[in-house]
Structure formats: structure tokens, C-alpha cells
């Protein structure tokens, strides 16, 4: 039951739990109780709204920053990851495989603001060896939702 509930609310956190109970063929009270337990256990960590900022006219710049660090003795990557995720500019921090150790996702108002964050805050941390900033130019799909609109064929149809 847990996995089915999580699968549905991950795709649509606004789904009515009574409606979800009907879809799953489970008692509504059982669904409500299970969701509450998962919130208390921090399995469900929050509910988010996805916004296509390009359509709002509000300027936002998103970047993915690859960070190479020296892990600290006895703490590995956890201590430096915590220092990074405590910055309010930071949306996400992931430990990754490959050439870099951490992937940091941030948003700012301008390219300069993001660049200044990287150069004055992130790059100056003691354990950080190097960074590489990748600005997101366009989002086509985010969290499983397609944001790109399909191009409409504007050619005229001609029949003979």
C-alpha cells in the first residue's frame, strides 16, 4: 500500500486522498493514516509546486555546479555537503560519481549573482578543490513533467 500511495502523490501531491483511496481500492481512513505516518517518519519530506519561470516574465537563472572536494577524515563528504546545503541560494546537493564529488543546484536573479555565489562562497570553502558551473539555458523536462511545448506545423495543407 505504501509504495502505491507514494507513487501517486509523487506525481500529483494535490491529489485528494479520498479520490486516491477509491483509485487504490483502500479505505480512505487507512490512506490518511498511512500518509500521516509517512510524514512523521520523514518518508514524505515535503510538497512542492513546479513553476515554469520562463512563462512568468520573472528573470531567474538556474545553474548546476560540479564541485570537487577533499573529504574530511571521519566525516567523508557529509560535513562539506552540510556547509554547502545550508546556504539559502542552494536548492539541492547530491553526492555523485564521476570526475566531481558533489552536484549543487542553485537559482539566482542574474548570471552575475550565481557567479558571485560560486566565487565568493562556494569556491572559498576549505575543502573545495575546484568547481565547474553549468548554467541551465532551457528546461525541457523537470521532475517528470515536460515543460517544452511541441512545435506546431504551420505549413499550409495543399491537395491536388
Give the number of DSSP strands: 6
Strand/helix succession: HHHEHEEHEEE
CATH superfamily of the largest domain: Lrp/AsnC effector binding domain/regulation of amino acid metabolism (RAM) domain
Strand order, biggest sheet?
2-3-1-4
Shape designation: flat
- Beta-strand percent range: 15-25%
Helix content: 25-40%
**Poorly predicted parts:** none
Count up the helices.
5
Provide the gyration radius in Å.
21 Å
User: What would you call the structural class?
Assistant: alpha+beta
User: Ends: how far apart?
Assistant: 59 Å
How would you state the average pLDDT, rounded?
91
CATH architecture of the largest domain: 2-Layer Sandwich
CATH overall fold name of the largest domain? Alpha-Beta Plaits
Largest sheet, strands/sense/barrel: 4 strands, antiparallel
Would you state the CATH class of the largest domain?
A: Alpha Beta
Tally of domains: 2
Overview of the structural elements:
- The protein is α+β, with helices and mostly antiparallel strands.
- It folds into two domains: 2-40; 53-138, Lrp/AsnC effector binding domain/regulation of amino acid metabolism (RAM) domain (Alpha-Beta Plaits), CATH 3.30.70.920.
- It has helices at residues 2-11, 17-24, 28-40, 78-85, 111-122, and strands at residues 61-69, 90-95, 102-108, 128-136, 141-142, 145-146.
- The strands form two sheets. Strands 2-3-1-4 form a four-stranded antiparallel beta sheet. Strands 5-6 form a two-stranded antiparallel ribbon.
- Helix 2 (17-24) packs across helix 3.
- The model has no long low-confidence stretch (mean pLDDT 91).
Amino acid at each position: 500500500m505504501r509504495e502505491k500511495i507514494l507513487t501517486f502523490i509523487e506525481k500529483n501531491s494535490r491529489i485528494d486522498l479520498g479520490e486516491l483511496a477509491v483509485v487504490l481500492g483502500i479505505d480512505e481512513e487507512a490512506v490518511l493514516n498511512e500518509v500521516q505516518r509517512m510524514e512523521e517518519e520523514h518518508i514524505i519530506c515535503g510538497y512542492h509546486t513546479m513553476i515554469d519561470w520562463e512563462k512568468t516574465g520573472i528573470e531567474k537563472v538556474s545553474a548546476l555546479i560540479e564541485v570537487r572536494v577533499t573529504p574530511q577524515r571521519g566525516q567523508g563528504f557529509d560535513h562539506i555537503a552540510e556547509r554547502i546545503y545550508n546556504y539559502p541560494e542552494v536548492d539541492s546537493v547530491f553526492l555523485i560519481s564521476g570526475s566531481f564529488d558533489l552536484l549543487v543546484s542553485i537559482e539566482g536573479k542574474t548570471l552575475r549573482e550565481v557567479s558571485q555565489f560560486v566565487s565568493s562562497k562556494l569556491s572559498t570553502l576549505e575543502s573545495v578543490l575546484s568547481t565547474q558551473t553549468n548554467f541551465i539555458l532551457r528546461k525541457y523536462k523537470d521532475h517528470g513533467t515536460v515543460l517544452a511545448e511541441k512545435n506546431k506545423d504551420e505549413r499550409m495543407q495543399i491537395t491536388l
